[in-house]
Design brief:
Length: about 375
């Protein structure tokens, strides 16, 4: 019953039938798709890249709403057991604070097992999100009336973490120097082929600029990373145009990096391991029309024969952007091709974790 009530309150959720309003187009023609007399042709309708990106954004919002709905239903079931029939947003802060603190200390899974600390925190975040949409007078996260709720959450999280409930055995681990050497030694990374070059650029962007997920890489544009020289004539790359991300969504103009991330060239290392050399080569191998600021950074590989690839003027890449699904799985494919440890959790975050492990000397570089 509680779930149905919450579902009605969140009735503005996106549903798949709304999808045609977002302009389905045929990639090959760029025209608006029309229904065909042949049903099989309709099933094979393809979507433009912009349509796919819109769908991903909508799905992310839909998933958030679905989680909010599920978490609220847990709280409402608890309130029903407490003989409380008022809506959450109608409860005064002092009363809601008491209910939420008791909920956190008493709630269990249906099996009787304790929730993980992150799950409890997520439930409170869902309630906060729901109340904020409805103009509630105080914030659970920062408001003084909800100090008891926050204290209850902290008190509950500590013993749960001690019991191992907060552990994440499948977290991505960092790459060590031997594994990075293996990626280059096995030809997975380097500057000898289009795929190896893309892999190397992608890894450099993760490692030095902390660009992680496929969506963040997909939004990277030519001109965001620029080649510069310092007063001593030494070349370096600078990430000068950080785009929206989860921790910096762009709503605060003051929330900017104080120092722009940079990669300096090292002329004592082989070109294949020199990030600046890889970037310069990529510049010469891109089609001329994609060297304009705002063009996609990652381009689709132009699959040419070895003879054509060896030609000085050969363009290794097409003008089309590389797909987000390809970028999402790039690290996993690299690890598989290089024969890295299959027991390690391999995701795009492995490169990010390599960025700054706890025992990593500040003056070190994985390329030295």
């Amino acid at each position: 019953m509680a779930a149905s009530v919450v579902s009605n309150m969140l009735s503005n959720s996106f549903v798949f039938r709304d999808w045609p309003h977002y302009g389905l187009r045929d990639i090959s023609t760029g025209e608006e798709s029309c229904k065909s007399d042949n049903p099989s042709e309709n099933k094979r309708r393809r979507l433009a890249d912009t349509d796919v990106e819109k769908f991903i954004d909508i799905e992310e919002n839909r998933n958030t709403e679905r989680k909010t709905e599920g978490d609220l239903s847990l709280v409402m079931v608890f309130l029903a057991r407490e003989k409380e029939n008022r809506k959450i947003e109608d409860l005064p802060p002092a009363e809601l604070d008491t209910y939420l603190s008791r909920f956190l200390l008493s709630e269990r899974k249906k099996s009787g097992e304790e929730y993980k600390p992150a799950t409890l925190k997520g439930i409170i975040s869902s309630v906060e999100r729901y109340l904020k949409k409805r103009g509630y007078s105080d914030s659970i996260i920062t408001g003084q009336p909800f100090a008891k709720t926050r204290d209850a959450l902290k008190s509950k999280q500590k013993p749960l973490k001690w019991l191992g409930k907060g552990n994440k055995p499948k977290d991505a681990a960092s790459f060590d120097q031997e594994e990075i050497d293996l990626l280059f030694r096995n030809g997975v990374m380097g500057i000898h082929s289009p795929q190896a070059l893309i892999n190397t650029l992608w890894f450099n962007n993760c490692l030095h600029f902390n660009i992680r997920g496929g969506k963040a890489h997909r939004s990277l544009r030519w001109g965001d990373v620029v080649f510069k020289t310092d007063c001593n004539g030494k070349g370096y790359l600078e990430y000068s145009a950080e785009r929206q991300k989860r921790t910096r969504p762009g709503d605060n103009s003051l929330d900017r990096r104080q120092i722009k991330p940079q990669i300096y060239e090292n002329l004592t290392m082989p070109n294949e391991r020199n990030p600046v050399s890889a970037f310069k080569l990529y510049m010469t191998k891109r089609p001329k029309e994609t060297l304009v600021d705002g063009s996609p950074f990652y381009l689709t590989i132009n699959h040419l024969s070895k003879e054509k690839l060896a030609l000085s003027g050969a363009k290794w890449f097409k003008s089309q952007p590389m797909g987000v699904n390809k970028l999402n799985t790039l690290m996993r494919e690299c690890a598989k091709a290089a024969g890295l440890d299959t027991n390690k959790q391999i995701t795009n975050h492995n490169a990010k974790e390599t960025l700054c492990p706890d025992n990593w000397p500040k003056e070190s570089s994985v390329y030295q």
